[in-house]
């Protein structure tokens, strides 16, 4: 009876602890975050003294927070209990297992609500009710998850004389880095969420996609959700999923056909009246090379002779390529012949690159009396490609048994052929003379 009750008690404890695990919302993280105090206005550059270490406790419901249970570690200056009903900040990429080396990168900045400066959108700020609501302390948290899995920027409202920190707007991307092949359609993920209980909800939104490369920026596409209008200036082939945008806040940018010159940084900004949040993505067009060897059929090589061969790798991007030449002899043994002399690159009209490697091949280098297969290997981030040609060598030094047999065979066939031909010709010649004699 005692055994039974122990098992009974143990299982009750087990069930209770399970229930507790489920109730404590495991997936929402506690994030180490740099809190950037107001930037010094003189220098422009933020100095280290303006950053302090803080901890963000994220929950999806206000009542899940338990500030009393938190012991602040000594090196932490500030603790924030943040409520994010959207759950955007509870993604697993922001919550690595304890002890993991890779941690999310987080920055918390003071945020100043202000009317949108976008010229092409209908004013979002004509509702009179907003300003009172705006009288609070505002913060913006930008968090990059581990392994470029996602990034999120959340704008947080902290009403004065309260403990609350509520996420009001969050913008998320699940494609922090996108590698696309040339000519493929590209999806740059971006989605946003506005707190439905906020007066800013339903008061209109706009989405702006910008492109940046080496300091130059431009508008890729802008969309005003209030008037359902696209910006006049926009990239050809760039569009949004308008239904998904209005129904689910899916602000993903669709590019019809990836081009090399579209590689760069993209910024997805979402504006609601007075506040905006943005995330940054990286698009890289990665196209592996096409590889060919010239001449494509090689003459038989005589020992002591040097052959010059060219390997052309074309149509690749980005400009990052490693050539290597290899020779595989008839026994399957592979010898490396080095990279050859690599030319400068040429750029094609579609932005892809070409490069050539020249190999001056001395037959002595092959260390093989017989031929084999010569390969040019081009290693590229988009994949390794290679071209092969057969290389025949006439070997005098050490003919193998097969070579000798072949030679004997050839000699026999030749002998037979000569015999046959001479027999045919002499035969017919005799006939002719016979006929002449008869006449
Ligand atoms: C957003 O829209 C794009 C384009 O229609 C779609 O491919 C993608 O799956 C959508 N994302 C979400 C999270 O629904």
TrEMBL record:
Q: What residue intervals traverse the membrane?
A: none
Presence of keyword Signal: yes
- A Pfam family annotated for this chain is V-set
- Outline the segment boundaries, as ranges, of region: Disordered: 336-355
InterPro entries for the chain:
Ig-like_dom, Ig-like_dom_sf, Ig-like_fold, Ig_sub, Ig_V-set, Immune_Resp_Modulators, Tapasin
Any signal peptide, and if so, which residues? 1-24
- Keywords from the UniProt entry: Immunoglobulin domain, Signal
Signal: present as a keyword of the record? yes
* Residues in Ig-like domain copies: 159-280, 289-390
Q: Name one GO cellular component term.
A: membrane
Q: Which domain of life is it from?
A: Eukaryota
List GO BP terms, alphabetically: antigen processing and presentation of endogenous peptide antigen via MHC class I
Q: What is this protein called?
A: TAP binding protein (tapasin), tandem duplicate 2
What organism is this sequence from?
Neogobius melanostomus
């Amino acid at each position: 009876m005692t055994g039974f009750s122990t098992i009974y008690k143990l299982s009750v404890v087990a069930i209770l602890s399970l229930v507790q695990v489920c109730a404590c919302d495991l997936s929402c993280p506690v994030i180490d975050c740099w809190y950037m105090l107001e930037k010094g206005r003189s220098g422009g550059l933020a100095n280290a003294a303006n950053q302090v270490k803080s901890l963000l406790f994220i929950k999806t419901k206000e009542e899940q927070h338990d500030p009393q249970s938190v012991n602040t570690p000594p090196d932490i200056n500030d603790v924030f209990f943040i409520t994010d009903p959207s759950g955007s900040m509870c993604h697993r990429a922001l919550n690595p297992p304890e002890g993991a080396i890779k941690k999310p990168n987080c920055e918390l900045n003071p945020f100043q609500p202000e009317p949108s400066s976008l010229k092409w959108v209908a004013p979002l700020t004509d509702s009179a009710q907003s300003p009172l609501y705006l009288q609070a302390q505002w913060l913006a948290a930008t968090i990059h998850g581990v392994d470029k899995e996602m990034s999120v920027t959340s704008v947080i409202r902290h009403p004065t004389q309260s403990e609350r920190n509520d996420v009001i707007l969050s913008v998320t991307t699940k494609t922090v880095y996108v590698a696309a092949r040339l000519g493929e359609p590209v999806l740059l993920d971006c989605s946003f969420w506005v707190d439905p209980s906020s007066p800013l909800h339903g008061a209109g939104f706009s989405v702006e996609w910008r492109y940046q490369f080496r300091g130059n920026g431009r508008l890729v596409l802008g969309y005003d959700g209030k008037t359902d209008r696209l910006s006049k200036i926009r990239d050809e082939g760039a569009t949004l999923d308008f239904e998904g945008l209005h129904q689910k806040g899916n602000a993903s940018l669709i590019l019809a056909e990836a081009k090399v010159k579209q590689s760069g940084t993209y910024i997805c900004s979402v504006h609601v009246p007075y506040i905006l949040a943005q995330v940054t993505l990286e698009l890289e067009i990665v196209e592996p090379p096409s590889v060919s060897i010239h001449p494509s059929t090689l003459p038989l090589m005589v020992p002591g002779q040097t052959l010059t061969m060219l390997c052309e790798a074309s149509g690749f991007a980005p400009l990052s390529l490693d050539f290597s030449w290899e020779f595989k002899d008839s026994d399957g043994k592979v010898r490396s012949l080095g990279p050859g002399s690599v030319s400068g690159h040429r750029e094609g009209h579609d932005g892809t690159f070409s490069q050539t490697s020249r190999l001056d091949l001395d037959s002595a280098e092959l260390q093989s009396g017989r031929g084999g297969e010569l390969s040019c290997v081009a290693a590229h981030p988009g994949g390794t490609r290679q071209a092969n040609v057969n290389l025949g060598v006439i070997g005098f030094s050490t003919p193998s048994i097969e070579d000798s047999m072949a030679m004997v065979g050839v000699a026999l066939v030749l002998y037979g052929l000569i015999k046959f031909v001479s027999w045919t010709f002499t035969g017919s010649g005799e006939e002719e003379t016979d006929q002449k004699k008869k006449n």
